[in-house]
Amino acid sequence: MTVELFFQTVVNATYAASYMALIAVGFVLIFGVMGVVNFAHGELYMAGAYTVVALYAGVGLPFFVAVAAGLVFVGLLGLLMELALFRPLRDNPLGGLIASIGFLLILQTIAVLGFGVRMKNVPPSTQEKLVLMDGAVLTYQRLYVILAAVILLTALWFFLRKSKFGWALRACAQDREAAVLQGMSINQTARLAMFIGAALAGVAGALTAPLVSPTPFMGHSVIVTAFIIIIVGGLGSLEGAVLVAILYAFVHTFVTTLYDGTLANIVGLLLMLGVLIVKPTGLFGAKERA
């Protein structure tokens, strides 16, 4: 591997880690607060991408206006899921999981009917790029993803630790029954978790739309990657999701560059299997309370 290729791979891995972290943190937040595995999370990512297809590539709105619309729209989809699916099935996690699969299929069908099954080419918002050390190139489009991930995840960290609503989210994630006894509203907390978790997936899809050529089935690979990240990091750990997203992105990108993508996927699955054998709760997960 040449020095130029090494630094270019580092740049590519940093970009991949950024959008993976946004998706995985949203997934973990929903699971931690609501106790349900949202199989439609990948389709929320897809919905964010298609919002940009419709508003930016279709209508001609400015790119960042379309991205903001994608964030809000997918966050509202999350609220709809909480109200219509997860709240009625709050005491039935398996039922919630199955309902999320149904919602997944609904979103895919809407995307197929509205946009067709072929990939949509979204023009980049800018052609500018940065030339880094030893000739490595970072396009502004990828830089936007990296900066957005840093800003949003940092803001979420402060929100969870410094605000009243953030404390409520953490309390419900740690012990829902105790949170109820303290007078916290489970419905309000669940709505907040679903909006934030869905919005993070939506903004990841919106920002990466010019880079990935959206399709109605683009959520499949994303949800598999998110599962690997949260299982290795620990189902209830937001910090673990971020750190493992970085680790996974670098491993996957370097293996893909040196060998091929299929081998990189196998390495990721082997990493997950190894962690499950050695530490079933994940690298940063806590043991389940008795």
TrEMBL record:
**What keywords are assigned to this protein?**
Amino-acid transport, Cell membrane, Membrane, Transmembrane, Transmembrane helix, Transport
Q: Name one Pfam family in it.
A: BPD_transp_2
InterPro entries cross-referenced by the UniProt entry: ABC_transp_permease (IPR001851), BCAA_transport_permease (IPR052157)
Q: How does it sit in the membrane?
A: Multi-pass membrane protein
Q: Which N-terminal stretch is annotated as signal sequence? A: none
Give the GO molecular function terms. Answer: transmembrane transporter activity
The residue ranges crossing the membrane are 16-37, 67-85, 97-119, 139-160, 192-211, 265-286
Tell me the compartments it is located in: Cell membrane
According to the UniProt record, one GO cellular component term is: plasma membrane
Task: Provide the primary localization.
Answer: membrane
State any GO BP term from the record: amino acid transport
Q: Which family does it belong to?
A: Belongs to the binding-protein-dependent transport system permease family. LivHM subfamily.
The protein's name is Branched-chain amino acid ABC transporter permease
